Hints:
By secondary structure, this protein is an alpha+beta fold. The chain has 5 helices and 10 strands; from the N terminus they run H-E-H-E-E-E-H-E-H-E-E-E-H-E-E. The chain has a 5-stranded mixed beta sheet. The protein has a 3-stranded antiparallel beta sheet with strand order 1-8-7.
Amino acid sequence: MAGRTTRATQALDRAGATYVIHRYEVAEKVGEGYGEAVAQAIGMPGHRVFKTLIATVDHEPVVAVIPVDRRLSPKKMASALGGKRCSVASPEDAERLTGYVVGGISPFGQRRKIRLVLDSSAADFETIAVSGGRRGLQLEVTPEVVTAVTGGAMAAIADH
């Protein structure tokens, strides 16, 4: 990857989308609490910073974009895509499918096109933050940019 660009920023640039870059450093290891540490590092509340998860619905890979302070509801995710069963993918599968490392998985510029659902709580905000395609980089975008650039949908898929 060249200096400041990632596949995520390149995808947004190609789409003519507006975004703001937030760079950060956190001491947390990727895992429980990482998203909240990122939110604090960029000065945004956890319900406005969204994590990108890879899951499967009826064995089909899908992308779930939810606030870092919430958990994915497998039942709601499956329902949003007209499926019966949903499970979160392993970190290895998530990296293989997206081409990104865990902690830096962006909804934009993934290795292959995978159906995406953005949690409907995003509609409560003018902008949200999502990963920019590597650890240490968040992109502030409108919820409409997320769905427009990815071809995704919006539905209530997170639990508190």
